[in-house]
Amino acid sequence: MIELSNISKYYHPGTVNELCLFRHFNLTIADGDFVSVVGSNGSGKTSLLNIICGSIGVEQGSIRIGGTDITRLPSHKRHRRIGRVFQDPSLGTCPSMTILENLSLADNKGKPYNLGFGINKKRKEAYQEMLHSLNLGLEDKLNVPVGNLSGGQRQALSLLMATMTPIEFLILDEHTAALDPKTAERIMELTGQIVAEKRLTTIMVTHNLRYAVEYGNRMLMMHQGQVILDKSGEEKQALTVNSLLSLFNEISIECGN
Ligand SMILES: Nc1ncnc2c1ncn2[C@@H]1O[C@H](COP(=O)(O)OP(=O)(O)OP(=O)(O)O)[C@@H](O)[C@H]1O
């Protein structure tokens, strides 16, 4: 379970540019939940993910994972339990290293010598099998630098790398936004498959309302640092793209856009 309690987050505190994004913000995500998060630009979706991952700190409040307070835990220690895939396919992988080297690095996440134990035949075969399941022909490209792959291939690899060690939470930050529609569809199918197989508690930020409606058992809509819609179970299943669009329009009118 992830629990954010009484979170306050300021950007540029004490300056003329001070922005209080979250004020006494609370959110609980249960184990096994697949939560899609939508919201207007600047509503705080990425900041929320950054707060959970520890990339940014908070002025007030606590973040607990499985009952353990991780508010002061540095991000590299949190990443042993959290896998993250970014919008930019180049952020989840090391482009100058081969697919094999990238997989080995991800496989050794959290261990003392990331590449030190080398890659034996058994591991190589296991990686090939994993890559084969992506159905992108990457199993025959183990020695190809990741920088030579397409955005979609890299994003599929990022997803595999983020989830190959026993993580508890998967954080997806608009991970299909930079892909063409067909590739985005494939990556979403793959996401659904991996999340179900590994039973990962997942938070997916997306601007694609159809994905938000079709995937996950809970949906949050954010606006100006607040959750303005929180639907799960049957209520979530009843959501439609049109109903979400209407809500977006209402928010825009409220803001005078
Ligand atoms: N590092 C930062 N320094 C200062 N302000 C920031 C920083 N990161 C985000 N903000 C501000 O916080 C607000 C929320 O930004 P955030 O990126 O979390 O929103 P978002 O919902 O993810 O937006 P988008 O949909 O456009 O990606 C915005 O007003 C943004 O300008």
TrEMBL record:
<dbReference type="GO" id="GO:0005886">
    <property type="term" value="C:plasma membrane"/>
</dbReference>
<dbReference type="GO" id="GO:0005524">
    <property type="term" value="F:ATP binding"/>
</dbReference>
<keyword id="KW-0067">ATP-binding</keyword>
<keyword id="KW-1003">Cell membrane</keyword>
<keyword id="KW-0547">Nucleotide-binding</keyword>
<dbReference type="InterPro" id="IPR027417">
    <property type="entry name" value="P-loop_NTPase"/>
</dbReference>
<dbReference type="InterPro" id="IPR003593">
    <property type="entry name" value="AAA+_ATPase"/>
</dbReference>
<keyword id="KW-0813">Transport</keyword>
<dbReference type="InterPro" id="IPR017871">
    <property type="entry name" value="ABC_transporter-like_CS"/>
</dbReference>
<keyword id="KW-0472">Membrane</keyword>
<dbReference type="GO" id="GO:0016887">
    <property type="term" value="F:ATP hydrolysis activity"/>
</dbReference>
<protein>
    <submittedName>
        <fullName>ATP-binding cassette domain-containing protein</fullName>
    </submittedName>
</protein>
<dbReference type="InterPro" id="IPR050166">
    <property type="entry name" value="ABC_transporter_ATP-bind"/>
</dbReference>
<feature type="domain" description="ABC transporter">
    <location>
        <begin position="2"/>
        <end position="249"/>
    </location>
</feature>
<dbReference type="Pfam" id="PF00005">
    <property type="entry name" value="ABC_tran"/>
</dbReference>
<dbReference type="InterPro" id="IPR003439">
    <property type="entry name" value="ABC_transporter-like_ATP-bd"/>
</dbReference>
